[in-house]
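Collaborator request, handled under Task 6.
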Amino acid sequence: MTRALRQNQRSRLAAETNLCSASGRHGGQLSVCLVSPSRYRTGMSSLGFQTIYALLSESAEIRCERAFLPERDELEEYHRSGTPLLSLESQRPLGDFDLIAFSTSFEPDYLNIPIILNLSRLPLYSAERSGSHPLVIAGGAAFFINPEPVADFFDAICIGEGEDIIPNLITALLSPDLTGRTGLLAALSRIPGIYVPSLYQPQYDGDRLLRYDAAPEAPLPVSRISACLEQHPPSSSQILTEDTEFGDMFLVEVSRGCPRGCRFCSSGFIYGTFRQQPYDHLVAMVDKGLEYRNKVGLVGAAVSDYAEIGRLSRYIVDKGAKVSVSSLRIDRIDNDMLEALLASGHKTISLAPEGGSQRLRDLIRKNLTEEQILDVCEMLISRDILNLKLYVIIGLPTETEEDLNELIRLVEAIRERVIEQGRLNKRLGEITLSVNPFIPKPFTPFQWCGMEPIPSLERKVKLLESRLRPLSNVKFKIESLRESYLQALLSRGDRRLAPLLAAMAEGGNLKKAARLCGIDTDRYVQRCIAGDETMPWSVIGTSETTVLRREYERALELTS
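Structure tokens returned to the collaborator:
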């Protein structure tokens, strides 16, 4: 290890405050390296990553360390010096660990998995690794949406929530009765929520996936596991450091899943029933966090739907601290919560109407009217919150130019209210319109839809820009269409994408890698999937398919 790399690792460790039990960080018969396939700042901003670290560290039998995708300058140093990727805590090569566990919530991080395995001097494909190599597993929301593009890289994948899976996983890994890699993988496949890809062989007819053939001992489909939150402490920050997106906050998860079931969003479907932490559990965790930070970030896919959100927010402020939340549900803005946000100094509130027109909001089952949107904006503006961020989606199925025109009229109406109140307050306000392309996601009613071609989306972006850029007090932001295309590819892909990811890890861009591998990426991204077709993610579970299909057909009825 070079001096520069060692100094970087030591500096990161010195800046951390570790709140975890020390039992799993010293000694322990099983060494585990928890890996985030993103850079340190991003990986340590993930509450999911930190929760898994805590679950592993609390076991006396586990010696848990961490590793991350190196920064660009560090990556150059690794290549220049020929140093294999090292863990953060002890600067130990990843190849020396018993178990390497990847954790990620977002499909674009799939691109970094081959980079990390190559940098660790490990064979990329699980079939090429032997008993002398570490076992390589994975978990996180991205993997229980669709693990197939990277399935061939892993020995096992956790499908579901770690609170219930990890204890069983640790028991199996420590079992003295299991001998050899084959026996261990067979045992892991019998644990609910653990997917062993080598025991499932996809069968194709040309481009079409026909089915999966599972080994006799392997369940098909693999069950997705949801934890009972009441039986576990709330997920919260375990390692505090300024070098994260939320460095000044202590994060606490208030709920999991979403009760809304918007037709484009996986959060309402992949997490099972919407679950909320008991208020008393959260208060105890908040009290712990306030020993280290004076600001508490409340986390969840549907924070506004937490039943005690106002009471909890008021509690934090009454303790002399500040509270922060992500975007708010427009029809669930609690007055106590809003007062707490104001007391915490919030000058910007994020709202997510998603559909730009009433027709599209009905199509995606957002259950919001324009009147509700404008009423909430007026309420916020009247409280001197003059900076509003609006999240909308373009390229939704059946979208027309008239839908875009209605979006523009909505922004103009909100802008008028911001300007009028700004004159009274003698302070300028700003509307930020954040536009994201529609990406079809597995386990949603729109999973059968294709993504709109990029040239068509570019025309829509130009239309919005031409109409909104000239407006004062309006800021227009667009998510990268190319990156959205890549995310759609990874969301809908199957195992045949593994060589493409391997080629991209060697430095090729998507277009070049696809040409090299003979892969038509447009077919994955843009085509509509037939209702009777086997989908790559069907290996996880198909119990929701009937419900999803019914919701899809109901959406189509709105357009007929």
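The cover message to the collaborator said: "The mean pLDDT is 93. The chain has three domains: 3-201+208-214, 248-346, 347-560. Please let us know whether this matches your experimental observations."
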